[in-house]
Amino acid sequence: MKCSKCGHENKHNAKFCTKCGGSLIVSGEDASTSSSINSKYVIIALVVVIIVLAAVIGYFALSGGDFNSQSSADSNKVQSDDKSNDDSGSAKTTDSSKKSDSSKSASKKWVSIGRYSGSGSGSKTIKVPKGKIKVKLSADPILNYATNHLYVSGPNGESGGVDWGPTSPVEQRSDSFKFTSKSEEKFTIDYYETVSWEVEFFRYQ
Fold it and tell me: What does DSSP assign to residue 23?
């Protein structure tokens, strides 16, 4: 190898010139060697980074899938619970409504809203309120050979009554009827040849 300083020819593998003692190592070779070593370290670092990135991406991918599955399961559970609660609430509401209706029905009864009585012959007009109405009537006839009676009648064909013929037994008779009206009505009580009579009106409330 030729010395770059004195020009002396040295052995090809010599590191120093045998004549002047100068260094025979070329700086380019040192740079190449250093560059080669650095390149190895860079490649190793890149491989490590790639492996780490792959592991992180894989972890998040798996975690994301599990999260979605869990979210879907939780969502289905919430929907199921909501439906169950809705059904339960609906059933409770229905039961409550039934109990309420039953309670209302149980609390309703026939309440007397007017009682009228008299004797002899004549007629009387009274006002009956709207609603579900029941009428009960009874009378005792005078002992004779006439046609005795007690009639109660309304404007819409609601009526009831008792009567006796000339040969009927002289005994008390009674009758009753029901009707429903949407407004107040006037009723007529007509009686003839009676010892006594009585008419009572009831409303279901």
Answer: B
Q: CA nearest 128: which of 190, 196, 188?
A: 188
Q: Rounded to whole angstroms, how far apart are CA atoms 169 and 53?
A: 116
Give the phi and the psi of residue 17 in degrees, each rounded to 5. Answer: -70, 130
Rounded to whole angstroms, the maximal C-alpha distance in the chain is 180
Q: What are the strands, taking DSSP E only, across the chain?
A: 110-128, 131-141, 148-153, 159-164, 173-181, 185-204
Instruction: Summarize pLDDT for 103-156 with one digit per residue, the tens.
Output: 655 799 999 999 999 999 999 999 999 999 999 999 999 987 788 999 999 999
Asked if 173 contacts 100 with a C-beta cutoff of 8 angstroms, the reply is: no
Residue (of 200, 151, 204) closest to 181 by Cα position: 204
Coil vs helix vs strand at 156? coil
Enumerate the β-bridge partners of residue 151.
161, 190
Closest CA to 120 of 144, 136, 141: 141
Tell me the domain boundaries of the chain.
1-107, 110-204
- Residue showing tokens 């009874």: 138
- Region of 81 (left: φ > 0; alpha: ψ -120 to 50; beta: rest) is alpha
Q: Which fold has domain 110-204?
A: Jelly Rolls (2.60.120)
